[in-house]
Amino acid sequence: MRILKGISVVFFLLFFSNLHAQISVDAQLRSRFEYRHGYKTLFPDNTDPAAFIGQRTRLNVDYKSENLDVLLSFQNISVWGDVPQLNTADRNGLMIYQAWAKIHLTEAFAIKAGRQEIDYDDSRIFGNVDWSTQGRSHDALQLKWQNKGFKLDVGLAYNQTNEQLTGNDYNILGTYKTFQYMWLHKDWNNFSGSFLFLNNGLQHIDNANSQNNEVRYSQTVGIHTNYKKDKLGLSSNLYYQGGKDITNSSLNAYLLALSADYQVSGKSKVVLGAEMISGNDNGTPSNQKNKAFSPLYGTNHKFNGYMDYFYVGNHYPNVGLTDIYFTNTTKLNTKSSLAVTLHNFSAASEIAGSTQKQLGNEIDLVFSHAVQKSISLKVGYSQLFASDGMEVLKGNSDKNTNNWFWVMLDITPTLFKGTD
User: Which of 69, 125, 195, 248 is positioned for an S-S bond with 102, CB 3.0–4.6 A?
Assistant: First the structure.
């Protein structure tokens, strides 16, 4: 109740704070059923598949005035049945997903600070990971400039465990200590290009000797390009990583991706692409040298197959990946479409104990339907056909079927929209 009262007070203050403010309140209720039989890894013998329904419940309050934008986004993440009936508290509670303010100092320059999504280009290095129920946001500061087709963002983040009197060691696992980045983007008539530089700092903790605690930095630099004319589109990613990883090994890694799409007709679009992500021979760094590229904070579910065998909390630092794929999206009617994607996976480096780099093939089917305004339905089915190399990589030769099925209902109504 205290949180709800707080939301009401914030909304009241925003509403009456500016005579020219635009305010909107929208919600998201997203429920997704999943059946997992070999999702993310090969299905073992003598094991039952998993089935559950996850839900995201989100409330967004968006305020815009002449010189100030504010977004407050609250959410609850749950699995149906994860608390008993007559419960007095939710298991995960209500959390702040985004809470940021953007101050427009001039027409070209703004400062944005607070908890926020960071999403650039095709979401390869920075993405909001909207597929995951929780999503991804950062506590960060951005300096934003745009003029005559140019956009420049300079961002930084600095994380701390809590308020302290001494010391700066950061002991929260699964995230960074600090980063600084620059993103430069330019649009032309049929072409756009972006340059990204990211200095990423990970906290090393030496449990035996705290004097050895330090932040170890890697650098990611690269370009993203897009070309579009008539029915043809081309895009590319080229990134390089250097510096140090968390184990203090020297990084020397790359990601190269190329794709072409073509609008065959008013109802059909095809995409042909390939991506190579460098890795380590035998799946581990050697001689304090790490050749495995990490996509870091990208929306990795979007790439390399929907069954998430690669780079979704896994497969790093490993043998890397070569992914050749083909997608056909067909518009079935004014409200429905069907996307079919075929992937061929192979290792970018040698696999321990195997002369084969071939990992297997995957097929992804996604049916999308707009039920009505603010209501959408999606149904997906994926199946992985593993090769011997995948069995070596995952340590499983049980030869079971590996598939995944899901149904997602997404409801996103606008609850209020008005202008003072």
Answer: 69
Q: Which amino acid is at 331?
A: K
Decide: 26 and 412 in contact? Cβ < 8 Å. Answer: yes
Q: Give the separation between CA 186 and CA 184, rounded to whole angstroms.
A: 7
> Angle at the Cα of 339 (from 40 to 332), degrees rounded to 5?
150
Measured between alpha carbons, how far is 286 from 293 in angstroms, rounded to an integer? 15
> Burial level of 310, CB count in 10 A (0-12/13-18/19+)?
buried
Measured between alpha carbons, how far is 116 from 129 in angstroms, rounded to an integer?
13
CA atoms within 13 A on the CB side of 405: 6
Which tokens hold the place of 216? 């170890």
DSSP codes, 135-204: ---EEEEEEEEEETTEEEEEEEEE--SS--SS------TTS-SEEEEEEEEEE-SSEEEEEEEEEEEEEE
Quick one: DSSP state of residue 88? S
Average pLDDT, the chain: 94
pTM of the model: 0.93
Cα separation of 269 and 369, whole Å? 17
246 vs 258: CA distance, rounded Å: 29
pLDDT tens, residue by residue, 310-367? 999 999 999 999 999 999 999 999 999 999 999 999 999 999 887 789 999 999 999 9
What is d(CA 122, CA 299) in angstroms, rounded to the nearest whole number? 9
